[in-house]
Design goal:
Blueprint: E1 2-5, H1 22-29, E2 35-39, H2 41-49, E3 54-59, H3 64-67, E4 78-81, H4 84-91, E5 99-104, H5 111-115, E6 120-124, H6 130-142, E7 147-150, H7 160-165, E8 175-177, H8 185-190, E9 194-198, E10 205-206, H9 207-212, E11 218-222, H10 231-236, E12 239-242, H11 254-264
Parallel strand pairs: 1-4, 3-4, 6-7, 6-11, 7-8, 9-11, 9-12, 10-12
Antiparallel strand pairs: 2-5, 3-5
Helix pairs in contact: 6-11
The structure holds S-adenosylmethionine.
Amino acid sequence: MRLIPIESLDTEGLADYSRLTDVALRRVSEPEGGLYIAESTKVITRALAAGHRPRSVLLQEQWVKDVAPLLDAFPDVPVYVGDAPTLESLTGYHLHRGALAAMHRPEMPDMRSLIRGARRIVLLEDIVDHTNVGAIFRSVAGLGADAVLVSPRCADPLYRRSVRVSMGTVLQVPWTRMPEWPEAQAILHEEGFHIAALALDDKAVTLDAFSHTPPERVALALGAEGDGLSSAALEAADTTVMIPMLHGVDSLNVASASAVALWSLRVGA
Ligand SMILES: C[S@@+](CC[C@H](N)C(=O)[O-])C[C@H]1O[C@@H](n2cnc3c(N)ncnc32)[C@H](O)[C@@H]1O
């Protein structure tokens, strides 16, 4: 392992971690071919298991023994080691989860090959909140759906907060960003998917009714927190499905809605 004690915060390789505020992270993590930050040994382990490559690691001395075995295959990756105050002044926050790794973002898989063979997929249209994106991935993993498609404007699943809220499942669940949506509905139909739009609509069928004899392959579309699914998405759907609401509540949080629907439509569990 290539341990590098931090002697100066100006060290070139540390720039990936400097002032890790949400805004700064967005800058380094969003561009295609850029980086994302894996936080904690657990998430780093998942990222490596997914075949992602680290560019560097940042940690306190006490975590070296935990991280060392993870990096056996990457002897040349720099591992920057510093004390808590040094790391805090570098990143802008207290690093209580032990280690951070700057990871190379994986190439986005082709949508068609990603969904081929899948039976349940989730499609996120313009979800803006990284917490919701992370929570949906956690439900997808835990309730056995096969893949996630995100619209061009959907929040980044590899953003630090999404990764953390997902418990690292964004690194495990196959996903890709659709180049265009709702134009991609043609691909979904060609691959045999029934598009079910989750929306509160007078003409919607209830989730219970839809789940009674569900289609073999379902793409479950979820809409943005404020406005819900666009009219174009609703038009692209084969069925609109609603979870009936009680006590005057108008809707569920989008991540809660995904969990309810995925459980109802689960295959073989
Ligand atoms: C907070 S809701 C958006 C509410 C928005 N005012 C609307 O009318 O769609 C965000 C997303 O969660 C899903 N959702 C939430 N509650 C739902 C329900 N009771 N039935 C079906 N979908 C629901 C839908 O996909 C919706 O686009």
